[in-house]
């Protein structure tokens, strides 16, 4: 897993398009990897993917802690979920077919290896190309319960099994795009399809926590812990 400084270097030197500018990023935390969700009136924390996801990602979920019982059961008010150290964001939608849910699926699949990137043109979920299994290059890997490593049959890793087994062709997923040397884009959305909320600080602390709050044109919203990119300061 790259440091923030290393990630920014990869983004700026190989992933950004000509003239595109990095504005925000979030990731690089092995504990704060879960998302919570309210989809179609149903609460879920930790959220598990509901659409096909790549199953050629080498991601270790063995030591990923679960959210607190309070957050798991939805016994909190407003944005108090922000104070659970395992929650990196929240997705809200009226149905599973919304864009925020598709973004959430890829963030969850990538776990601690996934980064949320925001630019002046798009938002995206990326991982290092090194996270992909080398033996799977050019292939469409099939996933089965029998092939899952022992440490993924328990805990949070087990929640991803159903979504992984649903994939039929990685090449058919529009989000599975190579995005420059060193990074692979799992999902992205152009700026024309979402708006950013003015309030990007959440929580009950006096300083609050920084979040990228994105509302899509289908009415769904995803909020992801992030930092503003300040060139020369990271």
Model description:
By secondary structure, this protein is α+β, with helices and mostly antiparallel strands. It has one domain. The protein contains five helices and 13 strands. The strands form two sheets. Strands 2, 3, 4, 9, 10, 11 and 12 form a seven-stranded mixed β-sheet that branches. Strands 7-8-6-5-1-13 form a six-stranded antiparallel β-sheet, sandwiched between helices. Strand 7 and strand 8 form a beta hairpin. It starts with a helix and ends in a 6-residue tail after the last strand.
List keywords for this structure.
234 residues, alpha+beta, 27% strand, globular, 7-stranded mixed sheet, 13 strands, 16% helix
Spell out the blueprint of helices and strands.
Elements: H1 4-15, E1 22-26, E2 34-39, E3 42-44, H2 69-72, E4 87-93, H3 99-110, E5 115-119, E6 122-128, H4 155-159, H5 161-165, E7 177-178, E8 183-190, E9 194-196, E10 201-202, E11 209-216, E12 221-225, E13 227-228
Parallel strand pairs: 2-4
Antiparallel strand pairs: 1-5, 1-13, 2-3, 4-12, 5-6, 6-8, 7-8, 9-11, 10-11, 11-12
């Amino acid at each position: 897993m790259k440091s923030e400084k290393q990630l920014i270097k990869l983004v700026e030197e190989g992933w950004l398009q000509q003239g595109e500018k990095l504005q925000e990023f979030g990731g690089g935390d092995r504990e704060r990897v879960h998302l919570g969700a309210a989809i179609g009136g149903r609460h879920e924390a930790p959220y598990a993917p509901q659409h096909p996801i790549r199953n050629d990602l080498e991601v270790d979920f063995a030591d990923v802690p679960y959210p607190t019982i309070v957050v798991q059961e939805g016994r909190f008010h407003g944005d108090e979920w922000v104070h659970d150290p395992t929650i990196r964001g929240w997705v809200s939608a009226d149905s599973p077919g919304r864009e925020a849910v598709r973004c959430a699926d890829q963030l969850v699949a990538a776990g601690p290896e996934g980064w949320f990137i925001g630019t002046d043109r798009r938002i995206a979920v990326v991982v290092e190309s090194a996270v992909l299994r080398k033996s799977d290059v050019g292939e469409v890997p099939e996933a089965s319960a029998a092939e899952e490593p022992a440490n993924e049959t328990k805990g949070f890793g087990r929640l991803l099994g159903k979504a992984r087994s649903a994939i039929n062709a990685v090449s058919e997923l529009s989000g599975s795009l190579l995005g420059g040397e060193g990074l692979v884009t799992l999902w992205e959305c152009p700026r024309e399809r979402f708006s950013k909320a003015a309030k990007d600080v959440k929580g009950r602390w006096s300083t609050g926590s920084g979040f990228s709050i994105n509302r899509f044109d289908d009415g769904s919203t995803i909020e992801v812990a992030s930092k503003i990119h300040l060139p020369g300061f990271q």
